[in-house]
Design goal:
With about 350 residues, the protein is α/β, with parallel strands linked by helices. It contains 12 helices and 13 strands.
Length: about 350
């Protein structure tokens, strides 16, 4: 039995799959198997995979009718035999020490309670042309500890899915990817974090995360902004049921987009008591249609009376909001959460 199973779902990736596979073959950690699940490719991918498997005995190629990335990744994981499962995508590149570094972290005695480990990633795209995605990489690379990853999970996906290695027993216990009208990888990490899984990161760049124009996050409605916000509402509501019992929920940000996200929370049973805003033109007013008040930061009550959800997404605003709340004695996670 190999110690590590690298699972790689692939669909029509003839131009990138060889480089991805070769990056696994170049790993300094040798005790691995590579399970490639072909999702009904119609280009030259199947032929390339057959050729690669002929020269690499640790590589197993499986095929299925086209079903999408979530079900295909699950099918690949069902074939995995290793204690640890490392995810990869067909257009990414694992640096040579990735598996060794991640196994080492999971094996450390002080990390026995860590269920999954990611790493820093290199942005494999044009930072000028795709500045938003590049900034996301910078943000996700700044989240290193289990505590920072857990607190950041409602802002954006706090780990890069193809960079993660996890204990295989988590799939049997908590389930794999779910197929639906939402980003399947983000949903899995929110679900696992909600169940108490601790996620850490190796503080080194060990994966190049490519940003191709054809990637699903750019072309599939399941990865549109509203799909993210709608899905997150369920998990934010679950967290509030644990940490905000008996307190009124106040949303920081009274703009139209924030109110829409608050409406999704309301649909999950969360009662919004009011809004906070730094714009003096909004404070003192009531939100039309709801009658909820908008107050200024200085009017916030003492910690313990309310729980604040900060939904402001303007660059730099999250850090400002966090600082203002901490100044007033609020603790992140206990009295407020940063969301998006």
């Amino acid at each position: 039995m190999p110690r590590v199973s690298v699972v790689l779902p692939v669909f029509n990736a003839a131009g990138t799959i060889t480089r991805a596979v070769e990056s696994v073959r170049a790993q300094t950690w040798a005790d691995w198997e590579l399970v490639v699940m072909d999702d009904g490719s119609t280009d030259g991918t199947p032929e390339i995979l057959r050729e690669l498997a002929q020269v690499e005995t640790r590589m197993r190629v499986c095929a299925r009718e086209h079903a999408g990335v979530a079900l295909t990744a699950n099918a690949a994981m069902a074939e995995a035999q290793g204690e640890f499962v490392a995810r990869m995508d067909a257009d990414d590149f694992s640096h040579s020490e990735r598996l060794a570094e991640q196994v080492a972290l999971l094996e450390q005695a002080e990390n026995r309670d860590v269920g999954a480990v990611g790493c820093l990633v290199e942005f494999g795209g044009d930072r000028a042309a795709n500045a938003g995605y590049a900034l996301h990489v910078d943000w996700v690379n700044a989240l290193l500890t289990p505590e920072a990853i857990a607190l950041g999970r409602f802002v954006e996906q706090p780990v890069v899915n193809p960079s993660v290695m996890f204990r295989r027993e988590l799939v049997a216990r908590l389930g794999g990817y779910r197929d639906g009208d939402f980003p399947e990888d983000y949903e899995l990490w929110l679900r696992w974090l909600d169940a108490g899984v601790r996620i850490a990161k190796v503080p080194r760049v060990l994966l190049t995360w490519n940003d191709a124009p054809t990637r699903l996050t750019r072309t599939d409605a399941r990865y549109a902004p509203d799909a993210f916000f709608r899905m997150k509402a369920e998990w934010i509501a679950r967290e509030l049921a644990r940490v905000a019992v008996g307190r009124k929920i106040v949303v920081w940000g009274a703009g139209r987009h924030t109110r829409k996200r608050a409406a999704w929370l309301a649909g999950r049973g969360v009662l919004i008591a009011g809004y906070v805003d730094v714009d003096v033109k909004k404070t003192g007013r009531r939100i039309g249609g709801t009658g909820l008040p908008v107050i200024g930061v200085e009017a916030l009550p003492a910690p313990g009376e309310i729980f604040v959800l900060s939904y402001v997404t303007t660059r730099g605003a999250r850090d400002y909001n966090r600082a203002r709340l901490v100044e007033r004695g609020y603790a992140e996670g206990r009295d407020f959460l940063l969301c998006a």
